[in-house]
Design goal:
Blueprint: E1 17-25, E2 30-37, E3 43-52, E4 55-58, E5 62-77, E6 82-89, E7 93-102, E8 105-108, E9 112-115, E10 125-132, E11 137-143, E12 148-157, E13 160-163, E14 167-173, E15 180-182, E16 187-189
Antiparallel strand pairs: 1-2, 2-3, 3-4, 3-5, 5-6, 6-7, 7-8, 7-9, 10-11, 11-12, 12-13, 12-14, 15-16
Length: 190
């Protein structure tokens, strides 16, 4: 109807966390949460959740970036059945990691940069990502060079991802990006 009820909250990380992103892996039928683990040097970390009734249980956490991370976003690539986390390392570089869920755990391939030019403190701010099911591509939006809003297309292959060339979607400062994919028209909206 017009109301919602919740089960009892379950802790997935006892240390301080931030910049959390969550995604549903429809192939594995699991929830995957990525976050900055402030209890472990602010590393990028992911954990798999299994929903049962109105509760959720978690497997063991896996580090996907052994660097301080923030600005996480996540999508499920239904073509390759992979989870893709994109995030900022330091204050300017953007990376993506491709994860494979197995049981209650997740493993990752090597991180791949999508905005590694550097020289622009505050770059790769406000990352948003979507999966384009028409073209089977991951699309990432972020504040990039000269603070312009930029978008870039990624193709998942195995446990890695490759990127095309970034394109500006606005020459204005792009903060607080959000994006969706419209399957009826096959378009991405930022």
């Amino acid at each position: 109807g017009t109301s919602i009820t919740f089960g009892t909250p379950v802790v997935f990380e006892s240390a301080s966390t931030e910049a959390t992103a969550a995604v549903y892996d429809a192939n594995a039928q699991k929830v995957v949460i990525g976050y900055t683990d402030n209890g472990n040097s602010a590393y990028g970390t992911a954990i798999v959740g299994t929903v049962s009734g109105d509760s959720i249980s978690f497997g063991s956490a896996t580090v996907y970036s052994s660097n301080p991370t923030d600005k996480h976003t996540a999508v499920f690539d239904s073509n390759s059945n992979k989870v893709v986390f994109s995030y900022r390392v330091g204050y300017e570089t953007g990376y993506s990691s491709v994860g494979t869920v197995s049981g209650t755990g997740i493993s990752f391939g090597s991180a791949v940069g999508f905005n590694t030019g550097g020289g622009n403190i505050g770059s790769t701010f406000s990352i948003a990502s979507v999966f384009d099911t028409t073209n089977n591509k991951v699309v990432i939006f972020y504040r990039g060079v000269d603070n312009d809003g930029q978008g870039i297309v990624g193709t998942v292959s195995g446990t890695s991802i490759s990127f095309g060339t970034a394109v500006d979607y606005t020459s204005n400062t792009a903060n607080y990006n959000e994006a969706v994919f419209d399957p009826d028209t096959g378009k991405v909206i930022i």
